Amino acid sequence: MPRKDPRVDAYIDKAQPFAKPILRHVRKLVHQAVPGVQETIKWSFPHFEYKGMLCSIAAFKAHCAMGFWNQSVLEKDMKQRTAMGQFGRLLSTDDLPSDGTFTALVKKAAALNEAGVKPKREVRPPKPPIDPPEFLIAALERNKKAQSAFERFPPSHRREYIEWLTDAKTDATRQRRLDTAIEWIAEGRGRNWKYER
User: Fold this and answer.
1) Per-domain boundaries in the chain
2) Fewest 10 Å CB contacts: which of 5, 47, 105, 158?
């Protein structure tokens, strides 16, 4: 019996009218291809899990997307990507492969999960450290608590603050950001603390 999540029903119900048939069709085919698949919501859109992440669907204002977690499943079947997922911008069910081809791809993805094949991910070298600008150094020196916290931050947190401050287009914007940054840094918060768990 399919394991459906009512949150996926709600997601589809809120989608644009053009998207609903696409989302329903993909959902139906995924459940037909892999009877043990389970639905969930991750990153605010529907995902299908079968012995790990299998695939996902998403609806946007003007298109839908469908993607496999383990992209190696589609290496030779992939379209030129113009959107999230492997099938580009989906505007109707006609933009998907035939039901037989699609079902075969879903089964192939499930078999990879059963075999424990992990997705191929590009290993990127770490970014080199970035030097803080003089105005940030001066502000940190005036607030020892912030200076101490900034020195304890991992390189990624320091980089986020430095890039945010140096991207300011005007002096007034930079000063507002600097005031906010010093306050947050003194509290030990990363630049994107609102999104951290």
Assistant:
1) 6-114, 134-195
2) 5
